[in-house]
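FIELD: query
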Amino acid sequence: MESAMRELRGRIDGEVDRSERRRAEYSSDASNYRVLPEGVVFPRGDADVRAALEFARTEGLGVTARGGGTSVAGNAIGAGIVLDFSRHMNDLLELNAEERWARVRPGLVLGELQRAAAPHGLRFGPDPSTQNRCTLGGMIGNNACGPHAVAWGRTSDTVRELRILDGTGTERRLGTDLSAVPGLSEFTLVNLAVLRTEVGRFERQASGYALEHLLPEHGSSIAKAFVGTEGTCGLLLDAIVELVPIPAATVLVVLGYPDMPTAADDVAAVMAVRPVAVEGMDARLVDVVRRYRGGVPPLPRGGGWLFVEIEGETPEQARETAELLCRSTHAVDSRLVLDAREAKALWAIRADGAGLSGRTPEGNPAWPGWEDAAVPPERLGDYLREFEKLMTEHRVDGLLYGHIGDGCIHVRLDLPIADAPQRFRDFLEDAARQVVSFGGSLSGEHGDGRARSELLRHMYSPAALTAFADFKALFDPDDVLNPGVLVRPRNIDADLRVAGLLPTPAAGGFAFPADGDLGTAVHRCVGVGKCRADTRASGGFMCPSYLATGDEKDSTRARARVLQEVVRGALDWRSDAVAESLDLCLSCKACHSDCPAGVDMATYKSETLHRRYQGRLRPLDHYALGRLPQWLSAATRLPRLANALSGNAILRRIGSRAAGIDSRRTVPELARTSFRRGWNARRKPSLPIAPDQAVALGGSAVPVAPAVLLWVDTFTDAFDPEIAWAAVELIESLGHRVVVADRRVCCGLTWISTGQLDGARKRLRATVNALDEHVRAGGVVVGLEPSCSAALREDLPRLLPDDPRAAPVAAAVRTLAEFLEAQPDWTPPDRSDRTVVVQPHCHEHAVSGFTADRRILERTGATVREIAGCCGLAGNFGMQRGHYDVSVAVAENGLLPALRDAPADAVLLADGFSCRTQAAQLAGRSARHLAQFLIGDSGTGRMSR
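FIELD: result
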């Protein structure tokens, strides 16, 4: 096959890849299934698609089209050739605002279309929760809907015309002329009874083929009938889709009910006011958000809620209709959400539902498979009550949410796929029979794929199933396109990704308390693909490497897929595939907070490097950068000599080459006097000192506020001691006594990021020894370097799980902003004359959040421009040889354009040493720490370099 693939590479302009790594990356979508493809093709145009299809036919391979890879039913995986349209064929070809339509390539992300249409007052109607990464081709493939389908219809309602290649390689233009496909008119006449009685019975009947659109009373539209065929009838080349006007004004109403079935009973009253969106949310799902993400905006009383969006010609009209809705429903409580930020936060819970519901309230993994059933809306309440009984009978649990307005419910269930796949099948069979008994559909929008196609026999007659097969044969007589889906389906329990998966033995690295083992942890990734989305506009940081390269390889999801192959034994920890997959991971931790499933790739990478190099020689940069605190401890004794040596161009080149550092990077200059040397010279107290001990001031002992331990990290100590002095001055101005550890201690971060976990554990144990007495006495630890604070908070207890002192020490750590906010009498200085460009640190964003810093900056009155996204240096990442170009590309997605657009007198605020270094080296801009900004130019404690 490799020689044949080489031939295909020579015939197309796009890329062909059948490496172990690439096949692993595309072995799954957002479903429960795993199928390794023979290869992946990234077409650049129609000719490439045609050549790939011809190649597959010649080699006897199937062809599966793929967009964003967010298919929940297993529609976007296959054993033959996978065509990824999202990489290159992602153009918006034309937008006609006057006639309200757009012509798009299949790989265009919906969010891009929405941004292009918005200035014209238009939008694409259907908007699934994945709209910031799903593609139009994928939406057409499974007839995507979303919250606003109740007002603006499904994708099939928007399609005017499609241009496709059918399974024989013939190009066809599909509109409303049945003769475009030979035999289709005759097929329609022969199957009139099936088309008029079994399909299209209610709006969300997404299972099977939507053949009702072929009927003359439905417009004889082949284009609309093609929508929802899940890649089994043709490969989309481009599409003309209709747009709708953006409402002039909207308001969100939240209605509270005792439970979800009761909320569903009230849907008729809700729909009477013609809302543009009606979404349901189980209280337990909101509890998950509260538990893992902090608070949520206030909600009315209830155990289940309906989120109802009302439109109007004016805000007053929308509000009037909303108030009418509150009066006319049977809700036990209601709330009008008039604050746009609160409304956005509430809708974000719904958008992240698939990931947030990936764990039950008890913490068990929950899976798709029966996540998409639909019934006529008037029967939804009764269906949900019976469905709850079915879950109890099968001993499964899940969190409910979904499109209540049109009868579609989403749920992920803790089905025992790994250890009891027969119970998985038994549940799905019973669930299929149950939903059919309510006149419903196995799928309401995600399609059938591998998850439900076999179950169509419960929903359709043999005549209807034969009609489906005959319809596909008109387009794909040789069953080349997405075989195993809809027609001649694969078994629902074949190819399950976690079936039979055993726990991954520990290897002396991290503990995984929430998951139990690394294998379960990496399977947190269920493929929702938010790591492929650009969420910077809403403050998101994930995933900087993917945003820089646009290659699936560099997404969090792809890395998780490769590691899933490792823990199942299909790839070795030391394989090139694993090294390539993790190479461009910045270990920024953004996925830890931004991924709705809670994937923590920085930890998985560290654990993988630990296992890969156990008992082996490591790359040179692991010794040079991974053990940097050791070298800096020595260098700070002779800073002038160290600076002279690093400043010599020849020596720097030799040293950089030997240390694995990119030659385009310069070594930051050491301060003339480190903080510790200055501190000791001024005879300041060091631990051990009881936090509430009195100190002598003016010859008499007076009580002061409890002592605060200032965590003096390696980088602040060696490079930026003035930051620590500013912090000392600030904390002492509040009446606290500042102490530091009586010996050098380290959070172990550089060892952690390079996977030297034994070394990290040694340093963290020394840290616990040094801080334990202070913490046991009730003292807090204030960190200045965000990455170090994050390591102490999160990595410390996971690397020392058996040390009872670790958790209390971790809990005592505060960022400077958190500490200041907790001081009741502290008021930040007036900085209303300043413009601040602030770069939050990725680790702070992920672990503690930037909220405290943000509130303090608001209270100063400064004009604040907050950068979203990683700076690109990310500790050792941007210094390592081979990473410079990507490091710069990441910076170009946030930091660098923000600095170019900032006023000349703007202050760059960056607490992270990496962020300050990146700004200095790439933009020639110096940055200040929050402590320095708050102390201002009048501070007396700073020391010059």
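FIELD: remark
The CA atoms of residues 787 and 843 lie 5 Å apart.
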